[in-house]
Amino acid sequence: MVNTEATTPATDAEDSALAAITVSARVPDFWANQAWLWFAQFEAVVVNQRLPDIARYNLVVAKLNKEAIQQISDILLARPVNDKYNTLKTRLLTVYEKSETRQLQKLLSEVELGDQRPSQLLRRMRDLARTKIPDDTLRVM
């Protein structure tokens, strides 16, 4: 039997609220030391939810710690009219991501094998190099 009842605005709002709660449970707290990876995971979780801009903005804010909240206090107190999520994301990445120069310096001078496997070291080196240094060069290093 097919349900022929039309959905009401209240039902849609309830479904949207339930979806936001479910998504929120799957998103970890913000990773200040790897903000770009956190945003990659966050976007993978919310991509199929079709959440509006304000819902994504609110989900990110809910996952921030006190220090991160202080970094975006001006955005919180005077929310942008448009593109709230991207404004918030851009600020957090600007604050918490190391400059490309610093990432390359760290790659060249501070990365050691230590007690890691070579494959773990290579993965860490790829994270630091991003797309600036080819894999073949990283393997030689």
UniProtKB/TrEMBL annotation:
It holds the Pfam family DUF7041. InterPro entries: DUF7041. The lineage of its organism: Eukaryota, Metazoa, Ecdysozoa, Arthropoda, Hexapoda. This is DUF7041 domain-containing protein. It comes from Eumeta variegata. Residues 27-108 form the DUF7041 domain.
